[in-house]
User: What shape does this take?
Amino acid sequence: MQQFSQALIFALACNLDTVLAALGQPRPPHRWEGAAVAGMTSLVTLLSLLLGRQGAALLPAALADRLGGLALLGLGLWYLLDALRGRGGEGPAHRSGWLGLSAALAVNNAGVGVAAGVTGLPPALSAACNFFVTLLALALGRRLGRELVRWQGLALPLSGVLLTLLGLCQLW
Assistant: This one.
């Protein structure tokens, strides 16, 4: 249950930007477009988690957990710092459709995935959680629409808090 909780927190942290990206899309995604976005981001997330796990295999287990926790903590704090600098509501500068958006979202997950992989977060479970949370985030973003644009500034600090909490959980 703890691994599922951590995988779910990881997926939530990785998908706050998905909600924001879906807010600005001119039309809802077709089913295949939503599945492609979720599939691409989850595949990149899985590969980055596996890469992080392989890197952790080269280190003693306790050190790998600590390094991964510190990396997640650092990323979370970096996101919080970006939010304090006023970069929280920028979002993607140009959206060329749902498939192009999936590539941008996948890149966002790659760095966090490597750090989370070092902590021992289960790759398959985390990628599966990411797939379903991405689909939910796309639906939520479209539903919220343009009426909640003023709340965009909360996504980056909230993602930072979630990653910081996940890092702290790994450290203890």
